[in-house]
Amino acid sequence: MTTAELPQVEVTTMSESAQHATGGTPYVSPRGRALVDQLLRDKNVQPVQSADDLACDGLFETDEELAEFLEYTYTERRANLV
Asked: Given CA atoms 27, 29, 35, 38 in this order, what sign does their dihedral have?
């Protein structure tokens, strides 16, 4: 299924401060929630039970690619702490 084939979903965005004021849960309209729930059922999406569910063998072809990705990730995280 391509992105163009996915159903259109209404999403209401909210600022980070508004999310904190409402307990961190953004508002999703009932219609939007119903569409998301239907999409999840159609795709047979299951909740993540453990970190092992997220493992993906062969994501990085070499140890150097993994090291480069990790260095980039750590650098970006440090840069965004300021």
From this structure: positive
In the numeric block, the tokens 């795709």 are attached to 43
Nearest to 31 by CA among 4, 8, 6, 15: 8
DSSP 3-state assignment of 51? Answer: helix
Task: Look up tokens 């493992």; give the residue.
Answer: 55
C-alpha to C-alpha distance for 11 and 29, rounded to whole angstroms? 8
pTM for the model stands at: 0.38
Show Cβ contacts of residue 69 under 8 Å, excluding neighbours closer than 6 positions: 60
Q: Could you report the per-residue pLDDT of 19-65, keeping only the tens digit for each?
A: 555 566 667 788 888 898 899 999 999 889 998 888 888 889 999 99
